[in-house]
Structure formats: C-alpha cells, structure tokens
Amino acid sequence: MAVWDDLTGQADAIAIFRAAAERPGAVATLERPDAATDAATTAAGRSTSSSMTHAWLITGPPGSGRSNLAFAFATALLSPGTPQGDESTRRLVDARTHPDLTVLSTEGVIIKMDSVKEAVARSQYSPSVGRYRVVVVEDADRMVERTSNVLLKALEEPPERTVWILCAPSEADLLPTIRSRVRTVRLRVPSIDAVAELLIRRTGVEPAIAERAAREAQSHIGMALRLATNAEARARREETLRAALGLTGVSTAVNAAARLLAIAGDDAKAITIERDAAEREGVLRSLGVEPGQSVPPALRSQIKNLEDDQKRRATRSLRDGIDRILVDLTSLYRDVMMMQLGRDNTIINLELLPELRRAAGACPPATTVATMDAIALARQRIEANVAPALALEAMLVSMIRR
C-alpha cells in the first residue's frame, strides 16, 4: 500500500507531493520556491507542482490533514528506492524515530526557541540512511517573532539535502520573510462523505456513527475520529449544546459557563491522563526506578521537568477543549440561522432538530448573528489570556440579554 492511500479529501495536494517525491534527479538539486501552489485549483501535471524545493508550507483549516500529509511526504522522501513509501520507513516515521527525521512540535502554548535551535542544528547533518534529511514543523504558527527569525536563517541557507515541511492554518500566520522562502500548498476542507469513509476504513465503526461524527466535527479529521470512537465525547458535546439552548436567565448563564468549563476540563483530562501516566512510567523505568519505589533525590529534577511539561500540555489541552466547545456552539447557532433563512437541508446538528426549530422561532436572524459574534469575541478574549470562566460567563449573559 502506498503511503498516500490512507489520506482523504486532498487529491490535488497529494498529486503535487507525489510528483515532487518522484521527480528524477531531485536528490541532486533542490529548487528555490517561486510561487505558492493552490492544491484546490492547480492541475497535478503543471511543472510548478512537480518540482522539488527545500522548504514547503502546508496550509489549511484545522482538521484538514496538514500533519498527516506532511508525514506522508516525509515518508516518501525518506524511503530508499521508492517514493511510494516502504513499510519499514513508514513505521519509523509513525513512531517519530527515523534517524533522518526531525519533528518540531509543541504541546504547550508556543514552540520554544530552544526547540527551534535544536531542530536547526540537526538540519545541518547529512542524511544517514535516506535520500534527504527531513524536518517537519507542526503548528508553525505557534512561534513568536524572535523564534521565527531563528527558523528564517535556516531557510535562507539550507543544506543541500535537507527538506523543511511547515504546517500552519494559513500563510498569514507566518512572517512574510518565511512565506517568501517556502512553496505553499493549500488544502481544502474534506467533504463529510470523505471523512466518514475514512472513519469506517480506519476504525470499523457503523456508517451512521461515522456520518454523524464527520458531520458534527465539520470535517475535522482528528475530532471526527474522537467522536466516532468515544461515546463519552459525543455525550459531552451534546451536553454543551443543550446547555446553551436551555439558558433562561443570568443565574443559569453563570452556571452553564461553569459547566462548560468543567466539560472542557473533563475532555482534556480524558485525552492527557493516560498519556501522562505512560510517560511517567516510561521515564521511571529508564531511570531504573521500580513501580511503587520512591524516587531518589538525585533523579527528582528529571521527574519535575516531566511534570512541568505535562502541566503545559494540560493547559494547552484545556484551551483546545474550550475552543472546541465554542466551535460547536458556533455550529449550533449557524444551524439556527439556516433554519431562519429556510435552508434546513444543511443542518449540522440534526439530532437537536426540535430544539433548533424552537430557537429559530424565538428570535430574528439579526439576534442570531449577534449571538455568533459573541461567541467569536469569547474566542478572541480567551486567546488573549482572559480567564476562560469570565469570557464564557460574559458570552452566555450577552446571549440571554439578546
């Protein structure tokens, strides 16, 4: 099976990267990028899409599969003899243990400068077993300007056989100087049917569950996988929407804000708790500490560093959980708006159809638009480090007043 076979909804982008990986003589020469390539409109056979370059930027909305495509391309570049991706290379890339692969990502709020410096230093090494040395930067938009400038220097003077693959929601999230040194491939939002088909193929869930998960996730592949395989996640999502629809006064709005925050926390814990325990067990094992044995004082600093990293990841996971709730609320009032405009054939939250009809008849479309604006404002405030509880309370109280 080719490395591209497990991707979905991005045929044009896949064709671009496949052609680049298969280009004869690409090992010897890496061309500088001269223009962005729109995967949604550019034919795969055009020369700009088939040429190889030292730096790529994959952009697209959350859940469009940026990282999946980046690692598929990395596998194709690292596979000896075949750009379709051999099985051993694929396993090493999936485990992030390939000797010629460097992955720069963050589970905190931002990518640290030290992490970027380390990745830049590793990018200077020659490939050990593959055709290239590949550096994948997930969430490249999470670098502050001074950190981005460290990356910029590496892109300006790249080694001959090093390829950078950056991922970000849009080109505007990166410095103009970085954008001018990468070739951009823009992804489209995959269709609900394509995501549902992927869920069935990967997880074996029933078609009805796969369709519902893909629809409620609004084609966000990662979120759809979670909804399809976790009944508790589906229940938590439905509870958040019903809480918003059941507001009757300021007191219920304040209580609902507290409940939404608790749901986001529960969802974040469900994602991180098992991983945290496994990481701690692995570190203790590597340090020679048996289960149940106290940690020697000389080793406690290493455990403390692990705990600090896990706390930062928990903060990031909680923020992401709150943002997912706000995205779900936006989809709810988008459905209300569609019903008010007579477009009820495009409803996302079909399971709440009776409640949506009642909400649509209770207010004019202008009020629904104002409610959606309040949700967008709450997202901006939380991004600006306003206390999530206060931002959610202000949002829900403003929805009551309208």
Structurally, how many domains make up the residues? 2
Compressed to H and E, one letter per element, the order equals: HEHEHHEHEHEHEHHHHHHHHH
Q: Termini separation (Å)? A: 55 Å
- CATH architectural arrangement of the largest domain: 3-Layer(aba) Sandwich
- Overall structural class, as computed from helix and strand content, comes to alpha/beta
Shape: globular
Explain what this protein looks like in three dimensions.
The structure is a single chain. The protein has helices at residues 11-22, 47-50, 66-78, 87-94, 113-123, 145-156, 176-179, 192-203, 207-216, 221-229, 231-245, 250-286, 300-340, 353-361, 365-383, 388-401, and strands at residues 37-38, 55-59, 101-104, 133-137, 162-168, 183-186. The protein has 402 residues and is of the alpha/beta class. The N and C termini lie far apart (55 Å).
Write the layout of secondary structure elements.
Elements: H1 11-22, E1 37-38, H2 47-50, E2 55-59, H3 66-78, H4 87-94, E3 101-104, H5 113-123, E4 133-137, H6 145-156, E5 162-168, H7 176-179, E6 183-186, H8 192-203, H9 207-216, H10 221-229, H11 231-245, H12 250-286, H13 300-340, H14 353-361, H15 365-383, H16 388-401
Parallel strand pairs: 1-6, 2-5, 2-6, 3-4, 4-5
Keywords:
402 residues, alpha/beta, Rossmann fold, Zinc Finger, Delta Prime, domain 3, six-stranded parallel β-sheet, 6 strands, DNA polymerase III subunit delta, DNA-directed DNA polymerase activity, P-loop_NTPase, EC 2.7.7.7
In brief:
The protein is α/β, with parallel strands linked by helices. It has helices spanning 11-22, 47-50, 66-78, 87-94, 113-123, 145-156, 176-179, 192-203, 207-216, 221-229, 231-245, 250-286, 300-340, 353-361, 365-383, 388-401, and strands spanning 37-38, 55-59, 101-104, 133-137, 162-168, 183-186.
